[in-house]
Design brief:
Strand content of chain B: 15-25%
Distance between the termini of chain B: 35 Å
Oligomer: heterodimer
Structural class of chain B: alpha/beta
Helix content of chain B: 25-40%
Number of strands of chain B: 7
Strand order of the largest sheet of chain A: 17-16-18-19-27-26-25-22
Shape of chain A: elongated
Strand content of chain A: 25-35%
Number of helices of chain B: 7
Largest sheet of chain B: 7 strands, mixed
Chain lengths: 768, 257
């Protein structure tokens, strides 16, 4: 068998062996008939001459029918071909007209094509072959991403059909595809997939690195890094990677801002002077559980080449690791004792308690070294440690006599900043505790000391009744449905209640007594929540003591009372701590950034506090762009909507532009407004602006892996060194040239000559 | 202590038509053969009121152990110097529920010259019917001995044994047993003086008994509060030899915990 690189004859026609056999027999028959025909000639020499001519004719015809052709397979000059990957992404358009990176890249392509035939492919979102370099003038550098890996893969696939002796990548090195993703900064070697790709190419991968003559003035946030989840009210570290170029000689600082769901949390100046790449460490404290969009923004400076890379977003899921509760009890009591037992039984709660164990009138006999009393650390609690707690419980706590008025601003700041406050009543609380007329009044969901009522405490049984709001509120639901819950509440009674309380606008009264005096109320105070329970006898539920003698007092009923106690406090704490599962409006959206232009889908489910779906509920959707600074105006757009029969509705938006948005839905349930907010991130359509300064890191990595070179800005004038061609190279077969022999005129002329000669001799020898 | 049944001196509570307020009430288990502890209960409540911030009702209620009214009183007292009649099944069941859900039962052996062996054995037997586990001696470092006062022993009118025994149910000591006639140290005469001499330590021992009574109530109300980290750290820093913070500020702003 001929070697691949040797010339040889090939037969194009394929009749199969039967066809050839038939043709052979036919030829033999013709020759045999000829032999019989020329027997009449007297001279044997003449017979053999005619027979030879006829046999030659038959052989020639049979050969022509086989369509022979000559294959030339010598190693060929055509194998000296150069693969060129040209970066056509938007970052290549950077630079002044006529001096853009793209312009220099085209010059490099022209220089390469002048010395060696090129096979050209552009790199962008996807590879695109270009037949001739001249066609590049019609292709602007506008691709929204750079995927050099895909372009190299394209060439590797093509390599099987056409020989390449080298590859040259022409790029500013700002890849944002698989190559960059798989080979982050600091990678000493290419990843396994890229290594396999380069091995498949089997040629050096050189590069012409298109750099800027002078660094562009730009501040880019190249990355914002934080844990994917954090804990509410716990400091979260955030690392922001900055790339500052062309500004090192400028005095002053740039301002770096960090926002949480659009709320500015930290502003930090960063000196312009210093290394171009640096990481700034920031900290912030997420207040609430749920999804948080963290935005880092470098305030744009004058003359920046682009502002599109001055912002970056990260999503953070905030959970509650352990709920930290500060429990301040005005005295040891059964109410404080059973609440402590309830709280201590919950392993997710960190409880810090302080009980006032001696009082002004009773401590004389107790004082001395023989006690284990410690001073109440008011300053440490209210000045230093307050923000470390999620919930403050004041249980029958005489606020006034403790001269704690000075700490009220801090308590107010804690609450309005997202903390929670639970005030449990008692004879020392509310009016008797110095709450009235103090700053405490602003922190409670009930009005203190309405006209004519100075507030106090009355003993005696208070029969309980749920208000219409309380029937469907998640805090007070003590049954499978509102009716069961209401009946349950009516069976309970409290022993004594605080007086001098009235509803206020900021609060929701959920439980009243038979005289419509508010007994349990909740409300939003700033970003925090507070609740008041105007009795100290909830322990009777926990202990099964809340039964009239006429009622059955079996253990089943007492167990039910205990369950009510634990359920009420669980729900109260969940509501105070903004447990998302208690929100009447539940929003669900994409867990990842949505590329701009794609549809953003957000679903809402509406239920009342009892868990029943709310069909045909009028909804008001809105979206607000989140800015890092107060100066940035929120953009509000509104869409009216309503839930379906299953209490659901979906919002689809395609018009949101790049950035962080708060999707909000509002509805009125039982006469009170409710809302839910979902932060979402719209990712930029183009990833090209995320980094603007050219870098040869990846190009060097490719060149180093394939023993190639990187040339800055222009191709080498002597051409690119090519891989030498050897005889065993499969590339040698690439230029096979076939020459048809059977259709050549010489064949026809030879056939005509044979037939003519035979006809002339026959006539001459008397056989015609 | 004189040990005849004079329970009429205690207000009997068998109906809830007038439920007690949320103030702490001492309640005596009305048992056959139980001692007269009315004055002792008064003293106990009075000392709590004088020494602590606890709002405690004057006097003590008395309830039968088979009466569901015991659920109005998380702290029960059972004293005696004779073997009590066996508890009814209903009483056993109710006491088990009471103690399992957070109640505390203080048992006091009020034997006159020494701890009553008959009461002791009968009580232990009845307790085994309620919970199938024996009483255990409390270690000296137990939080009860730090619940308000620092105590290193548990004495009463007598000091036969310095130990307290207890029975743990769930997260708390549901039963506390002293064999030293605590009520005897608290009992008063009608004119106000203490009714019985305290032996062998005299008035010093009586003060220790009063402090134990305070700690028992404080433990029932606060459980392991004094084991909280903040308290332990403070107490470690301020050992007994070191003065606690000045009294004046604590009185001016009643801020002792």
């Amino acid at each position: 068998m001929a070697q691949p690189w040797q010339d040889h004859l090939e037969w194009a026609a394929s009749f199969g062996w039967l066809g050839w056999l038939a043709l052979g027999l036919l030829g033999i028959a013709v020759i045999a008939l000829t032999a019989a025909n020329v027997r009449s000639l007297s001279r044997p020499r003449r017979r053999w001459v005619l027979l030879a001519i006829r046999a030659t004719t038959v052989v020639l015809v049979l050969a022509a029918l086989g369509q022979p052709n000559w294959v030339s397979q010598t190693p060929r000059p055509a194998g000296q071909r150069l693969g060129v990957v040209l970066d056509r992404s938007a970052s290549m358009a950077t630079g002044p007209a006529g001096q853009r990176r793209w312009d220099r890249a085209l010059e490099a392509v022209a220089a390469l094509a002048a010395t060696t035939p090129v096979q050209l492919v552009t790199a962008g979102s996807r590879p695109q072959p270009v037949l001739k370099p001249t066609e590049l003038t019609r292709l602007p550098p506008s691709e929204t991403s750079t995927d050099l890996h895909a372009a190299l893969r394209y060439l590797a696939d093509e390599q099987r059909a056409s020989s390449l002796q080298a590859v040259v990548v022409i790029s500013d090195g700002l890849d944002n595809g698989a190559l960059a993703a798989r080979n982050p900064s600091g990678s000493a070697n290419v990843d396994a997939d890229t290594a396999e790709l380069l091995h498949g190419l089997g040629v050096p991968v050189h590069a012409v690195f298109i750099d800027d003559p002078e660094p562009s003035k730009d501040v880019a946030i190249t990355a914002i890094r934080t844990s994917s989840f954090g804990f509410a009210r716990t400091l979260m570290p955030v690392s922001v990677d900055l790339e500052i170029s062309g500004l090192a000689d400028k005095p002053g600082n740039l301002m770096l801002k960090l926002s949480d769901n659009g709320k500015l949390m930290v502003t930090q100046p960063v000196p312009l002077a210093g290394p171009s790449r640096r990481t700034v460490e920031l900290e912030f404290q997420p207040l609430h559980v749920g999804t948080h969009i963290i935005e880092a923004q470098a305030v744009p400076l004058p003359d920046e080449v682009t502002e599109a890379n001055n912002r970056a977003f990260a999503a953070l899921r905030v959970v509650r690791e352990r709920t930290r509760i500060l429990h301040l009890a005005g005295q040891p009591s059964w109410d404080s004792r059973f609440l402590r037992t309830h709280l201590r039984a919950n392993p997710s709660i960190d409880l810090v308690s302080f009980y006032i164990m001696v009082s002004q009138g009773s401590g004389g006999l107790a004082l001395g070294d023989d006690t284990t009393l410690i001073p109440f650390p008011a300053k440490e609690i209210f000045e230093d440690a307050l923000t470390g707690f999620d919930l403050i419980v004041l249980q029958d706590f005489p606020f006034g006599p403790f001269q704690l008025e000075q700490y009220l601003p801090r308590l107010s700041q804690f609450l309005k900043g997202g903390g929670a406050l639970l005030v449990l009543g008692g004879p020392q609380s509310m009016g008797a505790g110095g709450y009235f007329g103090s700053g405490m009044a602003e922190l409670l969901p009930l009005q203190l000391g309405p006209p004519g009522d100075e507030g106090g405490w009355i003993d005696g049984t208070a029969q309980l009744r749920l208000t219409p709001l309380g029937r469907k509120h998640p805090v007070t639901l003590l049954g499978a449905d509102p009716d069961v819950s209401a009946a349950n509440w009516q069976r309970h009674a409290w022993r004594g209640r605080n007086t001098g309380l009235a509803a206020r606008e900021a609060g929701a009264v959920l439980v009243v007594d038979s005289g419509d005096h508010p007994l349990l109320a909740v409300g939003d105070i700033g970003e925090g929540r507070s609740a008041v329970v105007a009795t100290d006898s909830l322990w009777t539920w926990a202990f099964g003591a809340d039964r009239e003698p006429s009622e059955p007092s079996d253990s089943t009923r007492r167990d039910a009372d205990r369950r009510d106690y634990h359920r009420l406090f669980d729900q109260l704490l969940a509501w105070l701590l903004r447990d998302p599962s208690l929100d009447l409006l539940q929003l669900q959206g994409p867990g990842a950034p949505v590329p701009q232009g794609q549809a953003l889908r957000v679903q809402v489910t509406a239920r009342d506090g009892a868990g029943a779906v709310l069909p045909r509920l009028a909804l008001r959707w809105s979206a607000a762009r989140q800015g890092a600074g107060e100066a940035e105006e929120a953009v509000w757009r509104e869409w009216p909507h309503a839930t379906d029969s299953e209490g659901r509705a979906e919002l689809q938006l395609s018009e949101l532009t790049e950035g962080a948005w708060l999707i909000s839905v509002q509805a009125e349930v039982l006469g009170r407004p409710h809302s839910a907010v979902l932060p979402v991130v719209i990712a930029p359509e183009s990833r090209e602006a995320s980094q603007i300064q050219p870098t040869d890191r990846l190009l060097q990595l490719l060149a180093r892996t394939t023993s190639a070179q990187v040339w800055p800005n222009r191709a080498p004038s002597k051409g690119v060194p090519l891989r030498p061609l050897d005889a065993d190279d499969p590339a040698a077969v690439a230029d096979r040239q076939h020459t048809d022999l059977w259709s050549r005129p010489e064949v026809l002329l030879a056939l005509l000559a044979l037939l003519s000669a035979e006809w002339w001799l026959r006539r001459r020898w008397g056989l015609a | 202590m004189t040990g005849t049944v004079v329970l009429a001196a205690l207000p009997a509570t068998s109906a809830w038509a007038e439920p007690p307020s949320s103030a702490v009430h001492l309640a005596v288990l009305r048992m056959q053969g139980a001692s007269d502890v009315a004055s002792a209960m008064d003293t106990w409540a009075q000392e709590i009121r004088l020494r602590t911030s606890v709002a405690i009702a004057s006097g003590a209620a008395s309830v039968r152990p088979e009466d569901p009214a015991i659920f109005g009183y998380p702290l029960l007292y059972w004293g005696g110097e004779k073997a009590p009649a066996p508890l009814s099944e209903a009483a056993v069941s109710l006491l088990r529920q009471h103690l399992s859900t957070g109640g505390t039962l203080v048992i006091d052996n009020t034997g006159r010259a020494e701890a009553s062996a008959a009461f002791d054995s009968a009580v232990r037997k009845e307790l085994l019917r309620i919970f199938p586990q024996p009483l255990q001696k409390l270690p000296p470092g137990h939080v009860l001995f730090r619940a308000f006062y620092r105590l290193d022993r548990a004495v009463g009118r007598r000091a036969d044994s310095h130990d307290l025994e207890g029975l743990r149910v769930g997260n708390h000591l549901a039963v506390l047993y002293t064999r030293n006639d605590l009520a005897g140290a608290l009992a008063r005469q009608s004119l106000g003086g203490f009714a019985l001499a305290v032996v062998p330590g005299g008035e010093t021992q009586r003060e220790q008994a009063l402090r134990l009574a305070v700690n028992l109530v404080m433990y029932a109300l606060c459980l392991d509060y004094k084991d909280d980290h903040s308290h332990v750290m403070y107490l470690l820093r301020h050992k007994r030899s070191v003065s606690t913070p000045a009294a004046a500020p604590r009185n001016a702003a009643p801020s002792a915990e």
